Amino acid sequence: MITVENVIKRYGTQAALADVSFTAQAGRVTGFLGPNGAGKSTAMRIICGLAKPDSGRALIGGVPLTQVHNPAQKVGALLDASAQHDGRTGYESLLLSAIAMDVPRKRVDETLELVGLTPKETKRRVGAYSLGMRQRLGIANALLGGPSILILDEPVNGLDPSGIRWMRDLLRGFAADGGTVLLSSHLLLEIEAVADDIVVIGNGRIVAQGDKHSLLKGAQTHARATDMLALDAAVRAAGFTAEPGKAGELTTNASAEQVGRAALEHGIILTALSEGSAGALEDLFFGLTQDSSREGTPNPAGSHAGGTGAGTWPQSSTISSATGEGASK
Q1: Secondary structure element (H or E) that encloses residue 113, with its range
Q2: How many other β-carbons are positioned within 10 Å of the β-carbon of residue 279?
Q3: What is the pLDDT of residue 247?
């Protein structure tokens, strides 16, 4: 378990962290989100004992990591995949880490196999590695000591789609075995897919935290029906908002149960009904961090946000959607 309590960190007159408190529980994946410059990296460095807070504390299992004997066997961290010696081979890099961690040499081969680096690849110098291969080597180094806690900053950066799926399965399996995962990433859909809990930071302050489903539940309900115009009218008649959402569904502030009851009352056949959706975390993130975003992100809800006027529904009940995700090594 990771516990951060009332941490303040300043660089000169700039407050990188202002009274930050959160926890990452054992057996769960905690997604740590925030815009560039929000304080994520500073917080993770303090947890890892690489920076000292001006006040407050970060604890690993109830004690600072700096007080843990052989900390690499307690916490595995990947904070910068590029921070590796380019002149060493992948195998040499991990072997030196094994010696420093005092773990058996056989763990090197086991861990390299676990992260999918082939014997041929491990004989190559790290300077010739792609970003994706560096990420896999960094994950291997984090797992080498058999830690119970993983702290990872952008671990899927540079991985192709199969690599991203592999990483997701790895983290879920690690948490299922009782491990603690603190995961920072700008890929919000991936965090939404893998995380159990969410911590959002903006301008050095925690702006939201909690169970993912609790944070997203009720923020939006999405529904489809054989007669979308009738569903729109029924939801409005019940006193709720109704707007055309992504892929032609109805989006409303009513709960799924309330939508179901409205449809039943008017004899409407629902074909899909859900609270939250892929992308709900993205909406939450931008809504919470818009003031601290460096890029001045527009309202992700679009021109319908907060509106109550009737939208235009597709005349056909056929709904189509497409998703795409790619990364190159």
Answers
A1: helix 106-114
A2: 16
A3: 74
Contacts of 169 (CB under 8 A, 6+ apart): none
- Indicate the CATH number for domain 2-210: 3.40.50.300
Report the alpha-carbon distance of residue 199 to residue 209 in Å, rounded: 4
Q: Which two tokens stand for residue 3?
A: 């516990």
Sketch the domain layout of the chain as residue ranges. 2-210, 216-304
Ramachandran region of residue 214, left (φ > 0), alpha (ψ -120 to 50) or beta? alpha
CA dist., res. 226 & res. 219, Å (int)? 24
Query: For the residues 178-188, what does the mean pLDDT come to?
Result: 91
- The answer, yes or no, to whether residue 129 has pLDDT greater than 50, is yes
* Nearest of 170, 185, 179, 143 to residue 1 by alpha carbon: 179
Statement: the pTM of the whole predicted model exceeds 0.90 = no
Element housing 11 (H / E): strand 2-11
Cα dihedral 218, 219, 224, 225, rounded to 10, equals 50
